[in-house]
Amino acid sequence: MRRGFNRRKLAFMIPIGILAIALFLLVFGGAVMLLWNNVLVQVVHVSVISFKQALGILILSKILFGGFRGAHWGRHRWREKMNERWEKMTPEEREKFQQEWKNRCGHRFGRRFEEERGAEQQQ
Fold first, then answer.
1. Same domain for 54 and 93?
2. Same domain (yes/no): 63, 110
3. How far apart are CA 75 and CA 94, in angstroms?
4. What is the C-alpha separation between 123 and 118, in angstroms, rounded?
5. Could you tell me the pTM of the whole model?
6. 62 and 82 co-located in one domain
7. Each residue's pLDDT tens digit, 24-46
């Protein structure tokens, strides 16, 4: 019997996500504030900043220099590498690779998932 995505999992994931974002902001905002106050104040003679100002600088620098690419940036390289590897495979190796993929993930993404879903609906 397949267990799906339920409300308990969602109720657990939302606070964890909020906690992860808060921890990220706390760590990197604190790092920006400490570096600014300990380095730039003495070297460039700028004023001391607060934690909120450090968060603003962090977000501004992310927008100006980094963008919000997130996980999508690395996917293109992975896809290129996988295409190169696929092109170098012999037909036998491709068949073996496809079979292994079906064995590992077929129960979640392939035909077996549809079969399990049909069995659940019949019961």
1. no
2. no
3. 21
4. 9
5. 0.49
6. no
7. 889 999 999 999 999 999 999 99
